[in-house]
Write a structure and sequence with these properties.
Layout: H1 20-37, H2 41-47, H3 54-60, H4 79-92, H5 94-114, H6 117-128, E1 134-137, E2 153-156, E3 160-171, E4 178-184, E5 190-196, E6 202-203, E7 218-229, H7 241-275, E8 277-278, E9 281-282, H8 287-316, H9 321-345, H10 357-367, H11 374-386
Parallel strand pairs: 1-4
Antiparallel strand pairs: 2-3, 3-7, 4-5, 6-7, 8-9
The chain binds 3-thiaglutaryl-CoA (TGC) and flavin-adenine dinucleotide.
Length: 392
C-alpha cells in the first residue's frame, strides 16, 4: 500500500471539545496504526488472514478494555477515549477494530458487568494483556436479527451444566481462548456462560470465502454436550437485555470506528484530487469532484458532532440504546457512501490495494450488517419515536 500520509479532517475545530487526555490517546493510537497496521494490512486482507502479531500492540496501547478499570487490567479511560481509539483503529482496518470491539465490549464488558469477583479476576487481566482472546456467541444459523429465538441451551446436571447448540458468524471464533456464549436454561431464560477452549465437545470451525473483513477471522462456535463448570455462569444479569446491553457498548464503538474509515477515504480522495491531472489540471479543480469532496466533509463533520455528543451522554450514563442505534446506523451508512464516492474519484486506481478505499468499502458491508442491520436500527428509532413496535 502507498505510504500512510493520513491527516485527520477537523472542519469545525472539534478538537477544542476534547481533553488533553483524549488527544493523547488518539495520537498514540494513530501513531501505532501508521507504524504497525498501515504497512501490512493490505497483505493480510488479500491473504484473508488475521494479523496475530498485532495482538500484543493492541494490548500495549490499551485497546483491550479501554474503559475497564485498571484494577482488572483495563486502561480506565472514559467513553470518548474508547471511541477515539476505535476511530483510529478502524481508520486502519475495520477487521482490527472488530477484534477490539469484541474483546472489550462483548467479552470483557459482560464479565465485568455481569460476572462475579472471581470471574473478573480470573479472566479480565488476561484479556486486557492479550494473553487470552475472546469471542461473543449470540447469533445462530436461524436467529440473527431475532436473537431472542435462540435454541442453544443448557441443562443443570447437578455439578455442571450441559451445553448444546451452535453459534454462527462469530468474530475471532477460530482462535478464541474463551467465548461468552448466550444460551437458554430449561425455563427458556437467556444466560451468559464462559466457555473455554479445550472443553470437550467445543469446536470453532472457520468461515471461509468472505469478501469483507478479510483480516478478521470469523467462524462458528459448536457445542456438542459441552460440560461447563457451574462457576462459569455469569450470575448478575439474565434475559435478552444482558447480551443487548453489551451490544450498546460495541455499537457505540462502531459509530466512532466507521467515522475513521470515512475519514481515511475522504483524506485519500482529497490528496489524490490535488495530484491527479486530467485535461490539463488537477481533477480537484473540476466542480463535479469538488461536489463529492464537499459533501464528504459535510457528512463527516455531522457524524463527528453526533459521536462527540453521544460520548458525552455515555460518560454521564445518559446515552439511550436508541441514541446509540441512530449513531451506529448513520455513521456506517455515511462511511459506506463516502467510500463509494471516493472510490470513483480514484478512477481505476480506486479498485487496487494500492489505496485503502476498496478494502474499507468491502469491510463496511459487514459493519452495516453486524451488531444490528441498517434496517433493524431504523426500526429501533421508529419504535422509540412512535411507541409502535414494527419488528413483529
Ligand atoms: P425486546 O423485547 O425489544 O427486548 C428484550 C429485552 O431486552 C431489552 N433491550 C435492551 N437492553 C439493553 N440494551 C439494548 N440495546 C436493548 N434492547 C432491548 C428490553 O428492554 C427487554 O428487556 P426486558 O427486561 O423487558 O426483557 O427484544 P426483541 O426480541 O423484540 O428484539 C429487539 C431487537 C430486534 C432490537 C434486538 O433483538 C436486536 O437488536 N437485534 C439485532 C441483533 C444484533 O444486533 N445482533 C448482534 C450480534 S453480535 C455481533 O454482531 C458482533 S459483531 C462484532 C464485531 O466483529 O465487531
Ligand atoms: P437476518 O436477521 O436473516 O436478516 C436478513 C435481512 O432481513 C436483513 O436485511 C435484515 O435487516 C432484515 N430483517 C430481519 N428482521 C426484520 C424485520 N423485523 N423487519 C424488517 N427487516 C428485517 N454475531 C455474533 O453473535 N457475534 C459475532 O462476533 C458476530 N460477528 C460477525 C461478523 C461478521 C463478519 C458478520 C457478517 C456477522 C457477525 N455476526 C456476529 C452476526 C451478525 O450480528 C448478524 O449477521 C446480524 O445480526 C444479522 O443477522 P442475519 O445475518 O441472520 O440476517
Amino acid at each position: 500500500m502507498a505510504q500512510d500520509l493520513f491527516q485527520s479532517p477537523d472542519y469545525y475545530g472539534l478538537d477544542d471539545l476534547l481533553s488533553e487526555e483524549h488527544k493523547l490517546v488518539r495520537e498514540a493510537t494513530r501513531e501505532w496504526v501508521k507504524r504497525d497496521v498501515s504497512p501490512v494490512i493490505e497483505d493480510y486482507a488479500q491473504k484473508a488472514e488475521f494479523p496475530k502479531e498485532m495482538v500484543k500492540g493492541l494490548a500495549e496501547i490499551g485497546a483491550f478494555g479501554p474503559y475497564i478499570p485498571t484494577e482488572y487490567g483495563g486502561a480506565g479511560l472514559d467513553q470518548i477515549s474508547y471511541g477515539l481509539m476505535m476511530q483510529e483503529i478502524e481508520r486502519g482496518d475495520s477487521g482490527i477494530r472488530s477484534t477490539c470491539s469484541v474483546q472489550s465490549s462483548l467479552v470483557m464488558y459482560p464479565i465485568y458487568a455481569y460476572g462475579n469477583e472471581e470471574q473478573r479476576n480470573k479472566y479480565l487481566p488476561k484479556l486486557a494483556s492479550g494473553e487470552f482472546l475472546g469471542s461473543f456467541g449470540l447469533t445462530e444459523p436461524d436467529f440473527g436479527s431475532n436473537p431472542g429465538g435462540m435454541v442453544t441451551n443448557f441443562k443443570d446436571m447437578g455439578d455442571h451444566y450441559l451445553l448444546n447448540g451452535a453459534k454462527m458468524w462469530i468474530s475471532n471464533a477460530p482462535f478464541c481462548d474463551v467465548a461468552v456464549v448466550w444460551a437458554k436454561n430449561e425455563e427458556g431464560r437467556i444466560h451468559g456462560l464462559i466457555v473455554e477452549r479445550g472443553m470437550e465437545g467445543f469446536t470453532t470451525p472457520e468461515t471461509h470465502g468472505k469478501w469483507s473483513l478479510r483480516a478478521s477471522a470469523t467462524g462458528e462456535l459448536v457445542f456438542d454436550n459441552v460440560k461447563v463448570p457451574k462457576e462459569n455462569l455469569l450470575p448478575n444479569k439474565s434475559g435478552l437485555g444482558a447480551p443487548l446491553g453489551c451490544l450498546d457498548s460495541a455499537r457505540f464503538g462502531i459509530a466512532w470506528g466507521a467515522l475513521g474509515a470515512a475519514m481515511d477515504c475522504y483524506d485519500t480522495a482529497l490528496r489524490y484530487s490535488k495530484e491527479r491531472v486530467q485535461f490539463g489540471k488537477p481533477i480537484g479543480g473540476f466542480q463535479l469532484q469538488q461536489k463529492k469532496l464537499a459533501e464528504m466533509i459535510t457528512e463527516i463533520t455531522k457524524a463527528q458532532l453526533l459521536t462527540w455528543r453521544l460520548g458525552v451522554l455515555k460518560n454521564e450514563g445518559n446515552a439511550t440504546s436508541a441514541q446509540i442505534s441512530m449513531a451506529k446506523r448513520n455513521n456506517v451508512d455515511m462511511a459506506l457512501k463516502i467510500c463509494r464516492e471516493a472510490r470513483q474519484m480514484l478512477g481505476g486506481m480506486g479498485i487496487t490495494g494500492e489505496y485503502p478505499i476498496m478494502r474499507h468499502m468491502m469491510n463496511l458491508e459487514s459493519v452495516v450488517t453486524y451488531e444490528g442491520t441498517h434496517d433493524i436500527h431504523l426500526l429501533i428509532t421508529g419504535l422509540d419515536i412512535t411507541g409502535f413496535n414494527a419488528f413483529k
